[in-house]
Amino acid sequence: MHKRLSASRREFDPAEAYQYPEHLRCYIASLPALPGVYVFHSDSEVMPLYVGKSVNIRSRVMSHLRTVEEARMLRQARRITWHETAGEIGALLLEAQMIKQLQPLHNKRLRRNRQLCSIQVVGGMPAVVSAKEIDFARTPDLFGLFSSRRAAQQSLLNIGDSESLCYSLLGLERLSHGRPCFRFHLGRCSGACCGKESPEDHQLRLMDALQQMRVFCWPYSGPIGLVEEREQQRQIHVVDNWYYLGSVETLEQASGLSRVSHSFDSDGYKILSRPILSGKHAIIELS
């Protein structure tokens, strides 16, 4: 039995299956050493194999061609295309957009998350809320972006453990009236449940812990253009409610982008929140 398993494993060993993809060599010469997105295509015209981004397309694609663990994808690949951008922000935005739209076979991350959740504090009590219920771009006092309710609840548990907070005051368990929680007896709760700690101090420590995960509201009344430039290219990344609508070269072109309301996009928020809030990039209000 063990010999059969070993033979089977050797058959699928990437190191043994790998061969340099000579059939892709014809695309190498024209690869630019510039920021952008690249795509590995199979024979299918509908679903690409892989979409990636880099500040140096040529260097990144070359590293793929030498990666033993990607032998299967390289054998399936038939051609490589690419799209130049003005910089890293544009590359990140375009990569995320293309992965959501095209659903490449070998991309696991950045696919659309339909269960996006966050932690909202209402009346001092944290609760897990869904992006299906409220607009994350416009709702204040949201903390963290999570792929599921379970992940959000686990984050609250982690905060409770690290800060010695009371699970009952976090809404994670029920408490018998007038009795301390079980974790207090174990020395893991500071005693807000039984008067050993004031509710105000408990709340202050909770908010301090959550502050590191604050989700910032969209700071504009409508869509904006974030300007990104390099020597030979200028792009205006059009964004509304943290949702990336597309990139254009002129303001006149921006008016042609769809302004249909979209649900909150966590990838767009993660890519854009720092560049927009930092003040390091020119921002053009488009409304």
Give a summary of the structure in a few sentences:
With 287 residues, this protein is α+β, with helices and mostly antiparallel strands.
Give the helices and strands, then pairings.
Layout: H1 2-11, H2 14-17, E1 36-41, E2 50-54, H3 57-65, H4 71-76, E3 79-84, H5 88-102, E4 117-122, E5 125-130, E6 142-146, H6 149-163, H7 182-185, H8 199-211, E7 214-215, E8 224-230, E9 233-240, E10 243-248, H9 251-254, H10 266-278, E11 283-285
Antiparallel strand pairs: 1-2, 1-3, 4-5, 4-6, 6-7, 8-9, 8-11, 9-10
Helix pairs in contact: 5-10
Task: Give a written overview of the molecule.
The protein is an alpha+beta fold and 287 residues long. It folds into three domains: 2-102, GIY-YIG endonuclease (3-Layer(aba) Sandwich), CATH 3.40.1440; 117-215, no CATH class; 224-285, no CATH class. Helices cover 32% and strands 21% of the residues. A four-stranded antiparallel beta sheet has the order 5-4-6-7, with helices on one face.
So what's the CATH class of the largest domain? Alpha Beta
Compute the average pLDDT.
Answer: 89
Proportion in helices: 25-40%
User: Based on helices, strands and strand pairing, what is the structural class?
Assistant: alpha+beta
CATH fold type of the largest domain: GIY-YIG endonuclease
Total DSSP helices: 10
Describe the sheet with the most strands.
4 strands, antiparallel
State the CATH architecture of the largest domain.
3-Layer(aba) Sandwich
How do the strands of the widest beta sheet line up side by side?
A: 5-4-6-7
Q: Which shape, going by the Cα principal axes?
A: globular
Which parts are unreliable, with pLDDT below 50 for 5 consecutive residues or more?
Answer: none
Domain module tally: 3
Q: State the end-to-end CA separation.
A: 69 Å
β-strand number: 11
**Which quaternary structure do these chains form?**
single chain
* Rg from alpha-carbon coordinates: 25 Å
GO molecular function, one term: hydrolase activity
InterPro entries: GIY-YIG_endonuc (IPR000305), GIY-YIG_endonuc_sf (IPR035901), GIY-YIG_UvrC_Cho (IPR047296), UvrABC_protein_C (IPR050066)
Domain GIY-YIG: 33-108
Keywords: DNA damage, DNA excision, DNA repair, Excision nuclease, Hydrolase, SOS response
